[in-house]
Amino acid sequence: MVDSSSSSSSTTTSTQGAKATARTAQDLERVSDSFKEEKEINVKVNVDNEIGIIHQSSAESKRQSELAAIKVKAEDIELLVQELEITPERADRSIRENKGNVVDALRSLINSPA
Hints:
The protein is an all-alpha fold. It is built from four helices and no strands.
């Protein structure tokens, strides 16, 4: 004779186990999806940052080319170095940023913080 309560208890336990396994699988799937989305967002942010750096580098490179094309007289650099006690590199940069105008370069150096 088969004990029906034992058989039904075994079926109930097995059904509960299957449900628990299904819930665990669903939870794992949600965590995996969340992680995947977060990873995709991080990749997109990194790509956007890299694109921004490339654009910035390109703009800086263009600016450097424009400044390099400006003619600067050695006596203008020497004047700023002697009068303001700055490095020749800073004097040269200031003159170039002011399109070769030594008076404007002098004004910008005087009015700018050290």
